[in-house]
Specification:
Blueprint lengths: L1 H19 L2 H13 L5 H14 L1 H11 L4 H11 L1 H16 L3 H6 L13 E3 L5 E4 L4 H5 L1 H10 L6 H12 L27 H19 L7 H13 L2 H7 L6 H15 L9 H6 L2 E4 L1 H10 L12 E2 L7 E3 L8 E3 L4 E7 L16 E8 L2 E8 L1 E2 L6 E2 L4 E4 L11 E7 L4 E2 L2 E2 H5 L6
Antiparallel strand pairs: 1-2, 2-3, 4-5, 5-13, 6-12, 7-8, 7-11, 8-9, 9-13, 10-12, 14-15
Helix pairs in contact: 1-6, 2-3, 3-4, 4-5, 9-11, 11-12, 12-13
The structure holds zinc ion (ZN).
């Protein structure tokens, strides 16, 4: 895993360096240089005006907003001005699970025990996303071939669905099915149990899934009713699809009816698996709108690091700001167990990596399942990059470094590179104010 971490950080730095040469970033950096004297609230407004003059239009609007009274408003305006920088961080985070070289990271999961929780996620046209859960190491290792087959058959966005079918058909183990990971021998007109290569099986099985999805009228990877129909057709044969469409689509009831009818026709004791859809969807999770992703937060996996203290946020903000009297130097704790993925100790453009300087002294912790927590504007750090941390472990102290106009903690949660969904950021969804 060590080499993977290096790869990711190198790629992040490369992206950030590219961003650093962007004129918008440069103007924001100039703005930051002007702002950096403003650690106290009294100097904040003047500094903002100076920043606006030196930083062009982005800074000017920040200065205009900063004319509103109060440190809180000043903080908001500053952070709004650097939204572009934060977008970059999100894009970088988003690129990690989606880039081709991340297959190396997935392949490395081989080193882990057979059944690992893997997340292979993608965002899709029309909103929502689908991902895998509980894939075996064997299936994870075949993801590049699955993706290639999905490209070939015109369903690139359905790779997680094909992986889920493979989990069900193979039990997660290539050797146990003699390579026929999609259980295609019969469909290929061969006697059941005929050896079929992994490549042939993936290609044939993916072709069947593509055809079934078309026949079922699937609108996308979150169209579960049509996906259910296509999946049951994979198990029963695609004759089921037109039969079920004439009866309003897939239901477990009509799957049972079809199974009994076919068993009767053939004089068999049973026909197919009427629970096939449920069996496959154990490995496939769909998130549509805020509820899907928010439910992962609502599980309570993230602890609020400053109990008893309220937060503020505003539209377009990627996180929440926690500030209270004499908060400078107060300890900040990890919201959940994880690995420190990136730290920034020193916050001028010279010290920070690219646009990251706006976070000031900061800590980014990766928690698995695509979640990253970010803690910005710290006065000092208590952890180093690469360290593993437990939930509640001290990671730093509240400060006002970076693009900040007064002591506060900027706290954000990112999921697969997104800071929020449906106009709300994940941090405010994770810690509803009323529960404090
Ligand atoms: Zn903030």
């Amino acid at each position: 895993m060590r080499t993977i971490d290096n790869n990711l950080s190198l790629r992040e730095e490369h992206s950030l360096n590219a961003w650093q040469n962007n004129p918008v970033t440069n103007s924001l950096r100039n703005q930051g240089a002007a702002i950096h004297t403003a650690e106290t609230s009294g100097a904040a407004l003047q500094t903002f005006q100076a920043a606006g003059q030196s930083a062009g239009s982005a800074g000017a609007s920040a200065a205009a907003n900063a004319a509103a009274p109060g440190v809180g408003a000043a903080i908001q305006a500053t952070e709004k001005a650097v939204e572009k920088i934060k977008d970059t961080i999100e894009n970088i985070a988003a690129s990690v699970p989606r880039s081709s070289s991340s297959w190396g990271a997935l392949a490395a999961l081989f080193l882990m025990p057979l059944l690992v929780i893997a997340v292979i996620a993608g965002a899709f046209r029309g909103g929502g996303s689908a991902k895998n859960v509980n894939l075996s190491a064997d299936v994870i290792a075949l993801m590049p071939q699955i993706s290639a087959a999905c490209q070939t058959h015109g369903i690139p966005e359905y790779a997680p669905l094909v992986a889920a079918v493979m989990m069900q058909e193979s039990g997660g183990r290539v050797d146990d099915v003699g390579g026929d990971v999609m259980q295609c021998a019969e469909g290929m007109g061969l006697p059941v149990g005929t050896p079929v290569s992994v490549e042939e099986s993936i290609n044939f099985g993916t072709g069947i899934i593509a055809r079934n999805l078309r026949e079922a009228g699937a609108a996308g990877p979150t169209d579960i009713p049509a996906i259910g129909l296509a999946l049951q057709g994979y198990n029963f044969g695609n004759g089921y699809i037109s039969w079920a469409l004439a009866r309003g689509g897939y239901s477990k009831e009509n799957a049972r009816e079809f199974s009994e009818w076919q068993a009767g026709l053939h004089g068999w004791s049973g026909y197919g698996d009427i629970d096939y859809v449920d069996h496959v969807l154990r490995y496939y999770q769909v998130s549509v709108g805020s509820m899907g992703d928010a439910s992962a937060i609502a599980d309570g996996r993230f602890a609020y690091p400053l109990p008893g203290h309220a937060w503020d946020t505003y539209p377009g903000h990627n996180g929440i700001d926690i500030s209270f009297p004499n908060c400078y130097g107060e300890p900040v704790y990890a919201v959940a167990a994880g690995t420190v993925r990136y730290t920034q100790d020193g916050w001028t453009p010279a010290h920070g990596v690219g646009g990251m300087w706006s976070f000031g002294n900061s800590v980014f912790i990766e928690h698995g399942d695509g979640w990253i927590s970010a803690y910005g504007h710290l006065s000092a750090l208590a952890v180093a990059s690469g360290e593993t941390v437990t939930q509640g472990q001290l990671i730093g102290y509240i400060g006002s470094t970076g693009n900040s106009t007064g002591p506060h903690l900027h706290l954000a949660l990112y999921h697969n590179g997104d800071a929020g969904i449906g106009g709300q950021n994940f941090a405010e969804l994770a810690w509803p104010q009323l529960s404090m």
